[in-house]
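FW: tagging you since you asked about this chain on Friday. Here's the raw sequence from the shared folder, copied in full. Didn't touch anything.
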Amino acid sequence: YGASCGDRVEDEEIEVADPSDPSCMIATFGGDADSCQATKDAEGNACEWCSLQQKYNFCLNNDQVQMAEQMGVQCGENVEEDELEVSDPSDPTCLVATLS
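HL: got it, structure written out here
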């Protein structure tokens, strides 16, 4: 009839992982893929460098990667990094040529 006695009930162990482990996200402050990949999460797994629209880069653990990839985030070897071209708007070269 579905009844059970207290001494015969077996507890089932369930392994629970916390996807909000901040270990890898903190490595984002290091600012690059190398510092991210050198970091381990609370379970000892390597972190992955991820990118959203090649604009926003951050570090995630495996559980976070699985959720983020569903939203279009690229992680690991799939990340394409654009080289940022930097120029100095206060370059005096043209001004010096004008004054000569």
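FW: The beta strands are 48-52, 56-60, 74-75.
HL: agreed, and The mean pLDDT is 79.
FW: great, closing this out.
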